[in-house]
Amino acid sequence: MRLREQFRSYARDVILEAGEDVLAAQGVHAARMEEVAQKARVAVGTIYNLVGDRDALVAEILRQRHEELVALLNETLEATRGLTFVAQAETCLAELLAYFRGHQRFFRMALESERGPACAHKRLAQETLAKMREIFAQLIARGIAEGVLREAVRELAPSLLMGVMREIILLDIEAQHPSTARERVAEVLAIFIQGAGAR
After folding, report:
1. Does 68 lie in the same domain as 33?
2. pLDDT per position in the chain (199 positions), as tens?
3. pTM (predicted TM-score)
4. Are residues 62 and 133 in the same domain?
């Protein structure tokens, strides 16, 4: 039984990896399960047995990546509590950018899921955005407490910073920006703080 379960787990991981490739390249709603099966070198029936239909495949890929991303941000936020606001924000945002540089297929899938019709994976994307907004709100609160940011920006700043980072990630992926994630984020933070900074 243990060997069988190990095989099922391995096959499932291979399917998810192949699915992420095909879904990102062809679109969440246009990709065909036959092509996922071909890339994973399994039968279509194996995908249905181990993961489910296309919506289930999309949801599982996004669930895994979303959990990784939120865990990474929470761990980084906790590990940098002793730093100044600017250093903490720079580290957290650099980790975010580096994650998406390494998972470009996931970013494309997430964007398409957000724009698509109501479904399980769209709800999942919205839930993840809400969790990320909470993390960004903690960063902003830290900046306000240190006097780096104005109290008046507390409500809007988390969404503004998230929006800026989203566009930077999109631009970064499309343009293959040569700077390091930390250098890129330092530029973003400098502009953001000048706009939302204490006067």
Report:
1. no
2. 577 787 788 888 898 888 888 888 888 778 888 999 999 899 899 889 888 888 888 888 888 888 999 999 999 999 999 999 999 999 999 999 999 888 887 877 777 776 666 566 677 777 888 899 999 999 999 999 999 999 999 999 999 999 999 888 888 877 776 788 898 899 889 988 887 666 6
3. 0.80
4. yes
Domain that holds residue 2: 1-52
**What is the domain count for the chain?**
2
Give yes or no for a contact between 122 and 116, defined as CB atoms under 8 angstroms apart. yes
Q: Provide the terminal-to-terminal Cα distance of the chain, rounded to the nearest Å.
A: 66
Q: Which of 22, 17, 49 lies closest to 33 in space, CA to CA?
A: 22
- Residue 195 in tokens: 């706009």
Judge if 192 and 147 occupy the same domain: yes
Judgement on whether residues 72 and 30 belong to the same structural domain of the protein: no
CATH number, position 77:
1.10.357.10
If we measure between CA atoms, which residue out of 104, 114, 99 comes closest to residue 175? Answer: 104
Statement to judge: residues 141 and 169 lie in one domain: yes
Our measurement of the distance from residue 75's CA atom to the centroid of its chain's CA atoms, rounded to an integer in Å, reads 15
CB 94 within 8 A of CB 182: yes
